[in-house]
Amino acid sequence: MLNFRHDSKRPISNNRGPDPGLRGERNPVSGAVVGRAVHPAWMSWGISILALASMLGIHGHGTSTISAQSQSGSSIKTPTGSYLRRPVSAVFLTDDRTLCIANQSSGSLSLVDVERGELIGEWKLARSLVSLATLPNRTRLLALDETNHELLLLHVTRANVRVESRLPVSPGAIHVVATLDGRRAVVAALWSHCVEILDLNTNAGDDFSPHVRHRVALPFAPRLQCLTPDGQRVIVADGFGGGLAIVELASGKILASQELNGHNTRGLILSPDGEEIVLAQQILNEHLPTTQENIERGRLMQNVLRVLPLNSLLQAGQSVARNDAQSETILRLGEFRAGAGDPAGVAWLKGDRLVVALSGVQQVAVVSHHHSVPVAMSRTAVGQRPVAVIPRPGTSQVAVLNQLDDSVSLVDVDQRTVERTISLGAQPSLLPKDRGEHLFFDARLSRDGWLSCHSCHPDGHSNGRRADTLGDNSFGTPKRTLTLLGTAFTYRWAWNGEVVSLHDQVRKSLVDSMHGAKINAEEIRDIVSYLHTLAPPPPMLPLAVDAADQASIVRGKKIFETQHCQNCHIPPIVYASHESYDVGLTDERGLSKFNPPSLRGVSQGTRYFHDNRAESLESVIEDYNHPGATVLNRQDLADLVRFLKSI
Prior knowledge:
alpha+beta; 10 helices
């Protein structure tokens, strides 16, 4: 809990597996060679250049050497060599033995024969593939390129992968689903806070000529979605907090919207009868201090499967209040001395069983879903950071994507065994930032595996919740969890700004907040190295849509300056400062001076100030008179907020 700021006829195949020294270790980077330490921003020209590169989006999270770009109507053979793939999404083709896998870091598509336990081949298609959806005959697929903001139509067979067409979609496109008849698709755009409903034309013999029917703005940043059985509605889950919405495809109308008491939803499915929604998520108790006892007994951070009747959500309608409905069922994962950190992909098995990836502890668990009995759970160890579970039709097997070691585990859920683990190809020696990434997502660094850094900072961002840590050297003063995106721009950490070194803040968070095993200096340097690769959150509305909008941004910038906002939020890169300031607010212990967070990507927040008291940027200025003596008319307020949403 870091509480701080083709030649398509010759596809590539490789039999080398992931480094066996990384599998099943208590600490995935033990014994690794230490790289040069990365120091806080502004301390050297080197890190200043890295920070600028991060802001411009020219860094990468992996070390892929792939450079070829495919065009519509062709696919490019992946070059040989070692690189990181990072599998994130997969579907079975029509033969029910060929698994098609989207790789996030390499932008490639891998085909695996799970029957024979071997890699068929790999094709370079995009810069960053993040989601797959099947169309009716399962030889045509939809895929999302997160970096290029494109929806790809693919024709896939065991011998060949071909891009038939590409369609621009909203920035931050992260997940795609398609109706069973192939007539419509829905794309969730994380950073754009919207879903796009597409009408497709993918019948046999027709060209792919989709168009956007509706662009639906959401009150949260969406990630996962699932369609109702009739294909008329889509259920959308918040990518960071606890938001949940149901959207009608025909009209684009939001039928229901709720904020659940949960966050970090990484699994979302509908029950086979279509009557219940199942979410894999976490629940943080904002009012409990981060003590060792509260963690090890599962009180502070619950890892759960939440089961909600679909009808109860629809009946609740447009309410935005937290929903603690009596009709919901909470299936708690983990027990004393055996946490189940970071539940992720989930699938429904025959009968009343659910299988869920426990991504933070490198396991999958089979859970009995029955309202009248306690949760019965069995666990099976798999690879590093399992993120998705794909049932193999007609069998008791599930394919598990192990994101951080580029492999697939085929698990027999009846026998509770891993039948085989299939490598997707050779990995290079891990750099410090790569080792830091492993640690960031590893819940075993906490007491008994209950939470990881990612638990409160999903993918480095924020869950939007408060946590009562010793970040400000006191309990009883819960503070909002800040984003870690753009860490390279930050110099001081914690809300009071008392921690100068990021290395010290990482150590403090792991020791005082997560209460895990002792961490060494090498591991801290690796985590810092990873954090320095994380670009700032992108603004929700970065570009002007027309001349009037551009004029509003210009006026807002002028107001930002005349109101002296730049004294605490120094432009043009960091929009923060080293000092702490009295902002006219106090916490429970009377602390009135706070270190201003960066305004870079401030539009991606859901609540503001140290205790989440402001629910919007407008509320910060209008209701809390921030900065002091600010009196703005409606137009000036709108212009200032528009400018803030552009940075």
